[in-house]
Amino acid sequence: MLKRAFFYTTRKRGKTLILLLTLFMISTFVLTGLSILAATEQSALSLRQSVGGSIKLERDMDNSRNWTYQQGVGGVLVDYTGTPITDADIEKVMGIEGIRSYNGVGDGSVFAVDFSFISGFSFGPGSDYSRLPSVSDSEYFNYFRRGAYELVEGRHITPEDDHSVLISTALAERNGLKLGDMITVQCCYDAGGYPDVSLKIVGIYEVTMDNGQFNTTSTDKRNRLIIDHKAMQEIMMYDVIQYDNGVEFFVDDPRDIEKIAAQIQKLDLDWSCFKLTVDNTAYEAVASSLTAMQDMVTGLIIGIVAVSIGILALVLNMWIRQRTHETGILLSIGMGKVWIIGQYILETLMVAVIAIGLSWFSSRAVAQGTSNLLFGQVAETQPAVQMETPDDGTEYLDITGQYIPYDTSGMAAPEEIEVSVTADNLLWVYLLGTVICVAAVMLASLPVVKLNPKNILSQMN
Predict the structure, then answer these.
(1) Is the pTM here over 0.90, yes or no?
(2) 155-180 confidence digits (pLDDT tens)
(3) Minimal CA–CA distance to 409: which of 388, 384, 390, 389?
């Protein structure tokens, strides 16, 4: 069978050349597509790991049973009476694979004792205060992650800090403050009796976002003091550290974010008081082109394979019909149909081995240009990801930075995908090419080999 296959392909040079060119074109398309798909997947993986995503564990604001409401002098006093988020809860979540870090955010309001805030629109005496967040790791705080703040001096706050603070360049200039200086604050709540608390300046940030024209002292982003949780505990006179604004857990790969969220949901936490919020906005904002590119190339490869089988089947069917006499003779002398089809498959594979090998060189020449063309077209059609904000003005009172749109200009969104044709890609084409050739030959052979030798020979002219 091997000899017959070899002699036929070398004797029928015209047909062999046509088959070689056909398989060469198919192999080039498939190898180019697989190389682009592999490069796109690698770019997407690098992008996912650099941008990340977060899952926020926070108090369920919609469950009224967790809150008490009391009429006070200045309005309604709202107090949370449900289960607080504790360090033990954080440890449980951090035990899940795929979570790399977290940042808890606390909330408080203070007067400046030995320095002054930048004054804003005033509602009367006692309004010259500022709200301040406490953080576990300020590098993961939304104002820094989303580009609203930029650290220009010093360092970020870490979980090991004790009574440390980050201040803005504007506040530092107003009060002549520098790294290492101490400032003193006091909780501004009406209950009184709060202690003076000293904080050490470990970092200075610059506000890069538009601060607006009509700000009170407390909403002015330049007055934001960012402190550690131990300092907040003393300022607010809490018995334990509280994460009033929830805890964000950051995942290694945003593609796994829903699976990780489902695992967190299974933990033994008080879900009558807590809820989860998944934030994949950053990755979606910069990766939509890559995702669309993957879908497009996958579809192209599937289409190429399907069309290739059809074209090969048609070409081979015509040639096999021309070999009816040969097939009839082989059947009449007792040659099995499986062996005959095996010979046709061997003939095709002999040519395919050479054609796929040649496609290595052609694919390397066209892969990068094809990738740039496809990626450019896909990128132009992707809509910008919009940040959803509430319409009741609550985003202006938020100190977590939750409603700050992501600044994607500095993110690693690729302008093009660097494609290389690897040996692994070539191996996959050889495997896929074998499947295509076998499928095409079997389809092409069915109309002929289903006849018996007598019928085949009687049809000969």
Answers:
(1) no
(2) 999 999 999 999 999 999 999 999 99
(3) 384
